[in-house]
């Protein structure tokens, strides 16, 4: 028999904060180290969220999902 309901409060999680919404994925090096593997992992997360929004229902348009990265002026002017 499966249990239904929310997990018990722990750490930053509290069931009172639950609500209906799309999922998000966050990945970062907390020490600020830049790494291409962070971008690769972010793309993996994005691919795993394909089912969200209207994308699966309408192949002609996207749902606005993407990844956010730092883009320095030096890099943009290359």
UniProtKB/TrEMBL annotation:
Alphabetical keyword list: 3Fe-4S, Amino-acid biosynthesis, Flavoprotein, FMN, Glutamate biosynthesis, Glutamine amidotransferase, Iron, Iron-sulfur, Metal-binding, Oxidoreductase, Transferase
A Pfam family per the record: GATase_2
Source species, domain of life: Bacteria
Domain Glutamine amidotransferase type-2: residue ranges: 22-78
InterPro entries listed in its UniProt record: ET-N_metabolism_enzyme, GATase_2_dom, Ntn_hydrolases_N
Single GO term (MF): glutamate synthase activity
The protein's required cofactors: FMN; [3Fe-4S] cluster
GO biological process: ammonia assimilation cycle; glutamate biosynthetic process
Transferase recorded as keyword: yes
Pathway where this protein functions: Amino-acid biosynthesis
Keyword DNA repair included in the entry's annotation: no
PANTHER family membership: FAD NADPH DEHYDROGENASE/OXIDOREDUCTASE, GLUTAMATE SYNTHASE (NADH)
Assigned protein family: Belongs to the glutamate synthase family.
Protein's recorded name: Glutamine amidotransferases class-II
Taxonomic classification: Bacteria, Bacillati, Bacillota, Bacilli, Bacillales
